[in-house]
Design brief:
Number of strands: 58
Oligomer: single chain
Largest sheet: 12 strands, mixed
Shape: rod-shaped
Radius of gyration: 45 Å
Number of helices: 9
Strand content: 35-45%
């Protein structure tokens, strides 16, 4: 927009330059005697910032040489094309007077433009030295693709037209272009004067036809409007650049000189009295929804009432040099906008032209909003444009977040490109957007209305604050006049909760949801397991997760590699793109995947991640590591790593995933709130997750931590088709040691389940009547306190147990204790305390039935065991005592094994005894 404004403001200068007659060529072509004067009515220097000069006069001459044949002074080369650039902030209003049509301008020998469209005069020297004519300069209807057009006709010979538009080499530079200047003119010099207020009666003697014939030619206009307005920046001098080529050497144009408006002392002139320039823009900001914590667009408007821009007796207000806008606390970026979002690179931006089709420059998928600009200089013609996300870090600001604004008007050839940095607070996400930084200055073009609108809808780029109330935006606008910044505010209100519901309470509830299950619930089968956690927009954010899987749902760790902790730490420091292209953990440790849905409202942005098995963490023997490359649309927020301990419950062997206090799920990354709403966890490594063999109803549990509240959730879980599993384990008992009466034999029990059968759920052993408890050997059982502290006395150790499972590389091994049960049963319990990669405790209840010692393990974990060996010591530590000679009685035990699927295996088996057979007597 700024470029377009500047274009129009400099129309006057363009005309002046156009009168130039010369030719660009090699070394011989040049422009001389460059002069630009801003004049008052009395002939003095008109330099008040924002004022309307009486006239602006530009003088240009072409380099000449003496023709040896004719002896006359001639141009070194003949001018073909002339380009003049103008100082920033010098604007012209082509609507100040009527525009003359091309047909009228070209009619007859001198044209038929109305006197009302005259905006100045051109004094042209051509043909030969000192041959000078004075001709009127008219405001013409612009050529398509240009903002304005000026023209004059030299001595009935050749019309000269000057198109004013945006330079193709700079998005903010305005050029006046005179192309294919007629060689018949033989230009030597021009002095073009453009009137600051064309309708001023003082110009009547030179207006239009009067410049050619004399007399007085009033404009006939009822209102006098200013055509020229000086910049409101008093720092930079009024500088004009000249570029051209000749018919003899037409391509490319050459840069020749910069001309500055120079005062009597020979110093460059700049506008003055900037401190007196007004600056009163009005800012209005509104969200696109009145619902709190919801996806929202944003309408940002700046309105300027500046009658001084067209009033010849007043001064225009200052333009805006810099704008810093800070959105209300709690109004942050919406992660939902990341889904499908692209970005605009600097190369894409460079490809934007006034006539480029949508997507030919910045991708349409990078568009996040629109702009509209109106200026009195174009009679409030609406200039429309688009807002794009700039490619992160590869933008003029080097920032993660930046915006490009592209304003195009193909009919007028207007192309304005703006850039703004967006800085989110790293702790709160509050946004500050700045336009007018040195890397991308704002064009100094006055406007009456500037409307900046972010898209609304489910994937709107912003979210409203979380609570109802009044929310204030602060804008700090810096004037180009050099005065102090203007701080202004605008407020909007949110009056409902998300979806039009009631306003959220000050302390949000925490009512998340949980679903979980196996993809294939067949008992004993390997199947991926999923868990999904969700929350609504009115819930607290999830900060931590712990879970307890259903009994019997286990994982096969045997043969699986662990991700080294050094690799886990390395992932934390990597960009998301780097982690995605080269994962830190090896595939051999990959056990599953995650999908995280973030955002506000009904549409979320989903980001995939990976789950790895890793080593000890937070007191657990193993850990699960979620590694998520935080890539959403064009944004790379790094790599999110959440590591949690992985253990088995020692009593039930249930898988426990334990969150660590120092390992929270992040709520904000680089100032962008994550707003995690949907977390999907899939443990899907083939042959890893094994279903239970029990079809009893169970639960998958999760404990979630919100911002200030805990929530414990449970999801129904139940395996199926357990009856199809067979159950025929083999259990043997053998005795060793003293078999005679009063002896204390050692006993060994070996259980060998079959592969593919249901797991053992309970076991009962009724020993032969000839074996009973030796009370003298149970005087010092281990207390529960001692057991929990791993401090059982040696006298409480009865033996040793060993469990082999296909799920682990090494067996679990540990002592067997006689442990007191707090009076719950008459006799202490037999407890196998198994250690290895995990810790499992098996508790057997000891009592008597039918005068026989009975041991029952009623809660055996639902896990596959290939072999279980229990050895109880004999002798002085022996638990059992013989009541008869076991070598004579052939003792039998009753064995009852119950599968997790309810099937039973009952048998009466002889107990092996280490009896020595007697040799035959010799005769």
């Amino acid at each position: 927009m700024r470029s377009s404004m500047r274009i129009i403001s400099i129309l006057a200068l363009a005309a002046a330059a156009l009168a130039l007659a010369a030719s660009p060529a090699a070394a011989a072509f040049g422009l001389t005697d460059l002069e630009v004067i801003s004049e008052t009515a009395g002939g003095g220097e008109a330099l008040q910032a924002g004022s309307h000069p009486y006239a602006l006069t530009t003088q240009v001459a072409v380099q000449t040489e003496l023709d040896p044949d004719s002896g006359k002074v001639v141009p070194s080369e003949e001018l073909k094309d002339l380009y003049i650039s103008f100082p920033s902030g010098l604007v012209g209003n082509p609507t100040a007077v009527p525009q003359c049509s091309s047909e009228a301008f070209l009619a007859g020998e001198t044209g038929e433009c109305e006197n009302a469209s005259a905006i100045g005069v051109a004094e042209v020297e051509f043909g030969e030295p000192d041959k000078i004519v004075l001709v009127p300069v008219y405001n013409l209807e612009p050529t398509r693709g240009f903002a304005a057009k000026l023209g004059f006709i030299v001595e009935q010979r050749a019309p000269v037209a000057i198109d004013v538009g945006i330079s193709p080499g700079s998005p903010h530079e305005v050029l006046a272009k005179a192309t294919n200047v007629s060689q018949a003119l033989f230009f030597l010099r021009s002095r073009v004067t453009i009137w600051g207020t064309p309708a001023d009666p003082s110009h009547d003697p030179q207006r239009g036809t009067c410049a050619l014939k004399g007399g007085t030619c009033p404009s006939g206009l009822l209102t006098e409007k200013a055509f020229l307005t000086l910049p409101t920046d008093c720092v930079d001098p009024l500088t004009f650049g000249f570029e051209g080529d000749s018919w003899q050497n037409p391509d490319p144009p050459q840069w020749f000189a910069t001309s500055e408006s120079v005062g009597g002392a020979g110093t460059p002139l700049s506008p003055i009295d900037c401190g007196e320039v007004g600056f009163e823009p009005v800012v209005e900001v509104a969200a696109s929804t009145a619902a709190a914590n919801s996806p929202s667009g944003l309408d940002f408007k700046i309105d300027v009432d500046d009658p001084g821009l067209s009033d010849p007796t007043a001064r225009a207000e200052s333009t805006i040099e810099k704008a810093e806008v800070t959105l209300p606390e709690g109004m942050t970026l919406n992660p939902s906008a990341g889904e499908g979002l692209a970005s605009c690179s600097q190369a894409d931006l460079a490809n934007e032209t006034p006539t480029s089709a949508p997507g030919a420059g910045c991708p349409e998928a990078a568009k996040v909003g629109s702009v509209e600009v109106e200026t009195p200089l174009l009679e409030d013609r609406v200039q429309k444009g688009s807002i794009y996300i700039a490619t992160p870090y590869e933008n003029p600001f080097g920032s993660l977040l930046a915006l490009y604004v592209v304003i195009k008007d193909p009919e007028m050839g207007i192309l304005v490109k703006l850039g703004g940095s967006v800085d989110p607070d790293p702790l709160t996400g509050r946004l500050q957007t700045t336009f007018g930084e040195a890397a991308f200055p704002i064009p100094q073009i006055p406007f009456s209305h500037f409307r900046f609108s972010f898209n609304s809808g489910p994937r709107a780029p912003l979210t409203t604050p979380p609570g109802c109330g009044t929310h204030t935006t602060t804008a700090v606008l810096t004037p180009s006049s050099g005065g102090g910044p203007l701080t202004t505010t605008s407020s909007f209100e949110t009056t409902t909760g998300p979806g039009g519901g009631p306003c959220p309470p000050a302390s949000l509830p925490f009512l998340p949801g949980l679903t979980a299950g196996s993809i294939d619930a067949t008992a004993g089968a390997f199947s991926p397991f999923f868990m999904r956690l969700t929350r609504s927009d009115t819930d607290q954010e999830i900060t931590r997760l712990s879970s307890l899987l259903p009994p019997g749902l286990t994982g096969k760790i045997a043969g699986l590699q662990q991700c080294p902790q050094a690799a886990v730490e390395a992932a934390r420091a990597k960009s998301g793109a780097a982690e995605q292209s080269a994962p830190s953990c090896p595939d051999s440790s990959l056990v599953g995947h995650t999908l995280s849905g973030s955002g506000v409202g009904p549409a979320l942005t989903y980001v995939p991640g990976s789950l790895y098995l890793a080593g000890p963490f937070a007191g657990a023997p193993l850990s699960i590591v979620a590694i998520v490359p935080a890539l959403a649309g064009p944004f790379d927020l790094g790599t999110v790593v959440v590591q949690e301990g992985l253990d088995l419950n020692p009593d039930t062997a249930q898988v426990e995933v334990k969150g660590d206090a120092a390992e929270a799920i992040p709520r904000i990354l680089q100032g962008i709130p994550l707003e995690l709403r949907d977390l999907r966890i899939m443990v899907d490594r083939p042959g890893f997750t094994l279903n239970p063999t029990s079809c009893e109803p169970a639960e998958a549990k999760a404990t979630l931590t919100g911002v200030s509240t805990l929530a414990t959730l449970a999801a129904h879980y139940q395996a199926s088709n357990c009856g199809a599993l067979k159950f025929k384990p083999k259990l043997t008992l053998s005795l060793k040691g003293k078999m005679k009466r009063t002896g204390n034999p050692a006993i060994t029990a070996v259980v060998k389940p079959r592969t593919g059968d249901a797991n053992i759920g309970a076991s009962t052993v009724l020993l032969p009547p000839s074996l009973f408890i030796d009370n003298a050997h149970i005087s010092n059982p281990c207390t529960r306190v001692q057991f929990n502290e791993n401090a059982c006395p040696k006298a409480s150790i009865l033996g040793k147990a060993r469990a082999f499972t296909p799920l682990l590389d090494q067996p679990l091994v540990g002592p067997v204790y006689f442990r007191s049960n707090g009076g719950e049963r008459e006799l202490p319990d037999v407890v196998a305390d198994l250690h290895g990669q995990f810790h499992i405790v098996l508790v057997g209840f000891v009592d008597s039935k039918h005068k026989r010692v009975r041991t029952r393990f009623l809660d055996v974990p639902d896990a596959p065991v290939s072999k279980f060996v229990l050895r109880l010591a004999g002798g002085r530590r022996g638990l059992l005592e013989n009541s008869a000679d076991l070598c004579r009685t052939k003792p039998k035990a009753r064995l009852v094994l119950v599968g997790q699927n309810g099937k039973r295996s009952i048998s009466d088996r002889a107990v092996g005894a280490s009896c020595k057979s007697k040799g035959k007597r010799r005769r």
